[in-house]
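B., you asked whether I could sanity-check this one before it goes into the benchmark set. Here's the sequence:
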Amino acid sequence: MFPLLLSSLLASPAQATESVEMNVILTIHAGEGDCIFEDVITPWDSGFQTCRDALKEILEELETMGIAAEVQFQPGFLSLLDMDRSADAFDFEADLLDRGHGLGLHIHAQCLKPLDSKGNCSGFGVWGNTSGSTSPTQDVFELRARSLRSTGENVGQSYHSFNVWGWSHRIETDLSGGDTTAIDFLNTQGFRYAVGTNVGKEYAKSSTDDCYDGYRIDTADTYRAVPHPFKVAGGVGGRAHVVVYSAATPKWGDPGYNSAIVEAGFDDAMSCAHDRVVNAADTGWDGELFTYAGFTHLHNLKEDVDKDGVYDGLGDLEEFMEMADTLAEDYSDDDVTFSVVYRNVSTLEGMRQAHEAEGGDYDH
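And here's what the prediction gave me:
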């Protein structure tokens, strides 16, 4: 009996436990709220210096916390950081990239006047504003994107991710009508990796239906993130595409930050990940990475409401990290063990493309 039992065990080895990471992209919009500087022309402005110093301190602290953030700069703030030659100037290498953080670009309705020849940029000074808010025409959308790209080029910084007000509206409009104008234009401007909200994607799911698809039906959806990025294909010989990281908006550091509802959103992400892995035969999961992308703002993170010398947003993030690790442990079992890591978009894109090169699916 013993030899038979031994041979049976050798012929049917135990199923190996999957080790899976939940990658968190902490996206910081730097240059809005009380850090908007489109009308400021000198880095000696005291408001700018306050925001600059807070950014430096926050990024240093995030590094010590093990967070590699994705910082998307608004153009006015980015320009002043580049102009600053003081002893306290922000160093894009030492203060940002060498700490593992990523550099992206972000713009609302602003426009750079010299780039406009159609009368779509109104206001005084170098910077004006466009119409259309988050639902711009194609002309206005292109003006915003060109304004942002021009600013990035002027300061000589290579950017990886982007968020242009109206990108989700333009892409959704393209998709619904089979038009790829916006996607093709973004590619010509070098914008390839979008991090933002309001673009959905249908995912293969198991019977528990746990994966969020990006479509915002109720308030709770603001706190959920799509589990994998997805490509939106354009034209240009079939090579053009935009990779969308559809994100949640927890706003760490905001006075209205709600840890309970943020936890519920992250719980959904972990439930989706567990479901997709253990039911891979049904869901199609083949090892592609999971992500939880979330937004906040520099002006949220630098608040110190109780005046204790500690940024309130960093306290929210510490609480979030503890919660995330706890949920990862809760969702770990004999089939899968989870861990939570914090990576920027550039790092994740390299990992995902390597997975695709090995024959894996980029997204589902």
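One thing to flag: The chain is about 40% helix and 15% strand. Otherwise nothing jumped out at me.
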